[in-house]
Amino acid sequence: MEFRVLGPITVIGADGVALDIGPLQQRSVLALCLLASPRPVTVTRIIDALWDEGPPASAVNTVQAYISKLRRVLEPSRSRRGAAAVLVGRAGGYALDIPDGDVDLRRVTGRVDEGRRLLAAGDAGKAAREFRLALSEWRGDALTGFENLPWAREERVALDELRLTVVEEANEADLALGRGSELVPELVRLVAAYPTRERVRRHAAHALYQAGRQADALALLAEGRRLLVDELGLDPEPRTRELEARILAQDAALSPSVPVRVAAPPPAAEILGRSAELARLAAAVEAPGHRIVLVAGEPGIGKTSLVEAAAHRATGAPGARAVVGRCWDGGGAPPFWPWVLALRELTGRDGELAEITAATGEFPMYEAIARLVNAAGPTVIVLDDLQWADAASLRLLDFLATTRSCPGLTVLATYRDTEVGEPLARALAALRRLSHVEGVTLGGLPEDAVAEYLARSGGDPLRAGVELRRTGGNPFFLGLGDTPGAMAEVLRGRLAALPPGAHDVLSAAALIGRETELGVLLDVLDLPQDQVLDVLDAAVQARLLTERQFLPETFTTRGTAGLRPSATRLGYTFSHDIVRDVLREGLAPLRRRRMHARVAAVLEGRGTQPGELAYHYREGLVISGMAAKAITYARAAARHATGQFAHEDAAVHLEHAVALTGQLPVTDLALRCDLLIELAEALTVAGLNSRVHPVLDEAVAVADELGDGERLARAALGFSDPLVWAMYEELNATAVLVERIDRALSGAGARWRSMLLSASAIIGAFTRPMDDSRALAAQAIEEATDDRSLLRALSAAELLSRGVAPVEERAALLARMRGVGVDLVDEWLVQEAWYVELSTQGRFDEGRPILDWLRRTAAELRRPALVGLAAWQAAIRAYMLGDLALAEAEAAEAARAHPEGGRGPRSRADLMRALRLRAEGDSAAALEIDHPEQMWTILRCALLLDVGREEESREIFAALSHDGFAVMVGDLAYRIVPDLLTELIVAFDDREAARALYPHLEVCAGRVLGWAVADRCLARLADVLGRDSSALRKSADEFARRAGMPH
């Protein structure tokens, strides 16, 4: 039996059902015995408590009657003549003869004593756990129901004081672990409730100091001193004065970085039928060096058990650690959630990754995480259920798999191979290319393992073949006793055996998440607390749930309300996600939405992360008025994700917000337009360029409908990022896009004019004469109002000057660009332009350090466009220096940098492959690679000539050279164009074409033009025109020799 006084007086029988302990006075007798336990309580004390205004003559007989009835309740099978074994008689009174572990109050005192011992011994981590578990015993106010009884008032005060003391002890241990940031809200509330309680005030000041708020900490102590002196005439305690002095001295010991002693997972039972797989994982975790193991399989196949068993083996090595991070399937989890859980456990630090690492950028945060992991020594991190991982978590996994900063790290990651979405598929493809990454796929158990399982569980081993065919050897279905198709029926049978309300309780828990906090569940459900607890206890007995005591950081996505430790520390975990899936899918749509709405309303009052609130409000849309809240929290979640450098996650939240604008009771076009522009920005930073265009198309249309010039300008500018210009991805833009930008320009204020002029100059470069576009860029420079718009204008001018402007003009542009960078991305663009200039001068050795910086910085910034452009510049360098195999490899790397692939990146990779094939004499194979861009038309023309299809080649060339290469003017300095054009002019001996092209190339004499030496191209044209080309050839050879290019 279990006896509870820390809440309503309750006795739980052996079957888990609360016993009927009678009316108020009879319950008072039991309460008095419990409070005195294990000491006896005298009859006089009981009488005084029951009749404070004087006992009746029959008082002693009445007490004896209560005792007799309580004995029958507590020992229903005891004979009348048998001696009482629970509520026994002692000299002068009665006592409860029960083990300490059966009384919640005695469990509390035992845990507090153990916590104090551990804290004194320096084990703050285990001490904090003991104190928090002690707090979890309270189920509300102690002695609930006895508030108006005089005898109980003093006892309630004493128990409230005990509770507050345990809170103080827990805070003492948490502060020793450096968890002050998390404690601040609760401690500030405690100070307000107990302003003259010095220990509480000391803890609050200490927590504020650990949170980086030294001034607030000192102000709090000063306020306490004034209260003590003015109201009580007392000076602060010596310990308070000592703390104040240490804060003033910025004592480093006040902010410890004490790693929590991480307990290894308990030794796993033998895992049937998995000896080979377990051996592979054990070899991975026990071998020195960096390892990643990806464990795949269907739900219930045993992935988690396997990796936990392997992780447990790892902890047998000296200094080795094993921690776990589970991905969240409840919706709305913060970015990096599995990593947050793992690193909190590993380091003992609270907060999100940016806070744990104190990093100010994505790459610095990744590097800081690698250093933290490395500092912990040999470490195994288990990442469970990657199919639910957010994109940011997958990028961090990719980084830690490739970095050399944590050579002692082993990652064991599980995922359902039946639920691999696009982000995970991309991450797995990247990981599998690494030599230290291996994969393990789990299938069903073999028949001999099924037979052994049946024998151990009391079944018939001879039915192993039948059970194998029925369950596919899935351990979960073997344990459940049925197959996936019959899961719903099995669960209905189990639910029917549970107390009333079971379906409501468990369905609500399933919607909240894999791990359900009891306090949240109680608030969500409109059911009596005792009924909910009865259902949960029964569900644990039925092995549908597991009861767990969660440490505070487990539920950092949810806050706490007042002082309800039991509601915020006790929780439940589903035995398997399959159970959750069936419960959620069994809810009718309207009921599911209403329940999500209720969860959202409860979590909103608990300081929950905006992503989780956005998810529940979105899923809980019952009336249109709720859409506004869903949008607000989705937008907040996007800002939060951006602050954690999780740009793809931000884009997902904003996509939801845009969709939700259609659910608003009143159309808000301005809000929709703003959200579309924010979404386009997030997609651009994430490198998802193909998805940007339709978003901005709609933003422009909405801005047009609004007649809003500023929003139209912002939407139009989304099409014209200088990074995109540098990759030549917009230079085949349609006239419609040019018209939009020009229309925005006509109504734009001074703030936007310069940037719109720059965009018009670049995007319209092929729809108007080049001189006109260069004039627009010059005008943009003149009208720039800040460094950002000036750099954009200079970038446009620099790009348009390539291959057409004198050296002096380009030098002046580059000099101005170097002085106006606003941030690291701007600096990257400036350095890239300078690298291109050095390359055009053949100064490849000088450019190499800049190229290395570009690649390193692009990786640090984690911007796909930058990573891709840096790799592309490396490919061009390799091509010009004659290493075509390296050029092809670098171009492929540039294509892989784009998270969504796309035609542009593939085109660049295919171009290098085609050029290599042609150089190797296999022009026929190169012809099979084709793209619609104009540059490919020129290459196709040359390849057709190579394979003897001269007539087709001449026909294409005639179209290209028509009207003095009018269709090619903007492309004449582009990639392989000048080299191939001059080669074709020589092949066709076309003097007219040579005469038309010569002046366009002459401006770049003595330099690189496209990817060729300009003088070599000019020498070819001179030969066709009958001019002396010897000087040009000599100049070209000398240039190539100095640059290290093939002669």
TrEMBL record:
Domain OmpR/PhoB-type: 1-98
Keywords: DNA-binding, Transcription, Transcription regulation
A Pfam family hit: AAA_16
Keyword Transcription regulation: yes
UniProt-listed GO biological process terms: phosphorelay signal transduction system; regulation of DNA-templated transcription
GO molecular function: DNA binding
Xref: Gene3D superfamilies: P-loop containing nucleotide triphosphate hydrolases, Tetratricopeptide repeat domain, Winged helix-like DNA-binding domain superfamily/Winged helix DNA-binding domain
DNA-binding region of this protein: 1-98
InterPro entries: AAA+_ATPase (IPR003593), AAA_16 (IPR041664), AfsR-DnrI-RedD_regulator (IPR051677), BTAD (IPR005158), OmpR/PhoB-type_DNA-bd (IPR001867), P-loop_NTPase (IPR027417), Sig_transdc_resp-reg_C-effctor (IPR016032), TPR-like_helical_dom_sf (IPR011990)
Superkingdom, taxonomy of origin: Bacteria
SUPFAM superfamilies xref list: C-terminal effector domain of the bipartite response regulators, P-loop containing nucleoside triphosphate hydrolases, TPR-like
Phosphoprotein listed as a keyword: no
Family per similarity comment: Belongs to the AfsR/DnrI/RedD regulatory family.
Listed PANTHER family: TRANSCRIPTIONAL REGULATOR REDD, TRANSCRIPTIONAL REGULATOR REDD-RELATED
Protein name, UniProt field: OmpR/PhoB-type domain-containing protein
Species: Herbidospora galbida
